[in-house]
Design brief:
Length: 79
C-alpha cells in the first residue's frame, strides 16, 4: 500500500506486471537473464564491495574505469 500511496502523492503512474507474464516487460527480463547468466552465476562474491567492483568492471569489459577512460581517450585521438 505504501508504494501505491507514494505513486499517488508524486503523480507517478503505476504499471503492474502480472505474475507469469514476463513479456510485459521484455527488455528488463532479457537484461536480468543475461546479467544472471554472464555475471551472477559465474562469480562467488565475498562482500558487497566485491560484488560492486565485479559488476562495474564487467560492464566495462572487465577493465577498471580508469583503464576504460584511457582507452576511450586513445581511440578519440586516433580518430
Amino acid at each position: 500500500m505504501a508504494i501505491l500511496e507514494w505513486c499517488q502523492n508524486t503523480h507517478v503512474n503505476w504499471h503492474y506486471i502480472a505474475p507469469g507474464k514476463p513479456m510485459q516487460n521484455g527488455v528488463v527480463e532479457s537484461f536480468n537473464g543475461s546479467f544472471r547468466d554472464e555475471c551472477l552465476n559465474e562469480t562467488l562474491f565475498s562482500s558487497l564491495t566485491h560484488a560492486r567492483t565485479e559488476i562495474t568492471h564487467s560492464s566495462l569489459g572487465n577493465i577498471t574505469p580508469s583503464e576504460f577512460a584511457s582507452q576511450i581517450a586513445l581511440e578519440k585521438q586516433a580518430a
